[in-house]
Write a structure and sequence with these properties.
The chain folds into 2 domains: 117 residues, no CATH class; 215 residues, no CATH class. It contains 11 helices and 11 strands.
Length: 398
Amino acid sequence: MVATNPLRDDKLHYHHLTSNGRKVLKEITARTSETGVMEFHGVDAREYEVLQHVLEEMGRIKPRLTYDYSKHLLFVDIPSPLHEAPFINIRDSLACTIEHLPYDHDVICPAINMNLPLEIEDILATLHISITLTKAERPITELLVPLIGECICSETKTKSHIMDKMKKTIDAHPEINMVILGIVHEAQAYECPKIGSVASKTLLKSPTPIPRSKFITKSFPPCESINIADHNWCHLSLVEFFVWVKQDGDTQIDLDQDDNDHMARGVLYPEVRMDAVTKMFQQGLERIRDTFVDFTKHISTIVDVTSLEEAEVVFPISWKDAFIAADVSVDATAYARYKHWHENQINPTKRTWDLSYSPSDSESESSVSDDAKLQEGTSLSCGRPRRKRRPASQPPPR
């Protein structure tokens, strides 16, 4: 008989959740990106681990999680296509910049990461975008983070949480040379259609969501509401970017500084005004190149870094392409919201397992026994379970 791997058993993970954990899971799976950041109290470290596994295995949503081990506090951010789109072009352009730098691939290993979990003291934070730098050979004993970035909605609570997370990341990694913040504004906050509304009466006639091509049948101009069946599904009004770069003499980046030497603001949507941001990107990437130089010297005293020191930094961004990506993401977000709403109305139990499930006595005893075994086999470090660390990045192909 083949033993079951508990890490691959969805229901085993689910049954390890307490009633509070199940409520958290139900809340997460019931919400979409219009919610902003959700905050859950009283989630212990082990339950956080189980929630992580359950959400990964469900696969229908991919939230960014931030967990505070000391406060037992879980923050959940469910990004929409609106928030993902602006960083796609930036990621690709950063990859091109790094690819053209003549660094020694046998000595250092830079990587561009999307949704990287990063441990910061008692917090496990998921960064939207980051550049990490390690040596090219194991064991990996140092991790530098020259760049971090987030793209968020304009909701006040969300912005406050993200700014706090970035400040704590900077405190833990003062070597950060560049910080990017994108803020997405919607003219109308999205709400699901109400029972009895035109949208509810017309769009719930089909037992399954209609295809996107039949849901959005016309072209909507920029900054106009995607209004279908007398309901607003998405109304993007503004996408702005803020970029901070560490200057000579600075110990670390201060996100409260807004002078022109340290911070630049630009508008990507509804019209492109990104010249100041482009210049700040150039400055930041030149400093990241210098970090590559310093880290190479730190690892090896015999490697010639002259060509890297003198290398021109090229950031081949097309903000017009980024604008188009943001505009196209409006339709994608509108359809995703419709589909999520439709599925929850027609078949609400589809989003997760039966949340009213109550295990039998034998199952409860088995679960308690499993919990005890897991706890016995768990060593503690700094008041939390010691987890197997994931590598921060994979070496680039040679």
